[in-house]
Amino acid sequence: MKVVAFNGSPRKNGNTYHAIKMVSEELKKEKIKVEIIHVDNKNIRGCIACYKCAQNKNEKCAIDDEVNEWIQKIEGIRYLITGM
């Protein structure tokens, strides 16, 4: 099993990160892989409802930013931790 945790706080090492880190440490004790992604000040645009993702059927947004990479990381993930 793998968990992908998104830290949406503007403070990379703030309280949200420390809370996610505490949870991830407990999960690792149970042999669960954890990846923490820091969203913080990334230049990410919102959905523009162009439906290219549905038309292309490739799970990729027409807007080329880091979200496409993150979508692939969470593919098949059953649990997702978000902190904002």
UniProtKB/TrEMBL annotation:
Pfam families: FMN_red
Single GO term (MF): oxidoreductase activity
Domain of life assignment: Bacteria
Residues of the NADPH-dependent FMN reductase-like domain: 1-81
Keywords tagged on the record: Flavoprotein, FMN
Keyword ATP-binding tagged: no
UniProt KW Ligase keyword: no
Protein name: Flavodoxin family protein
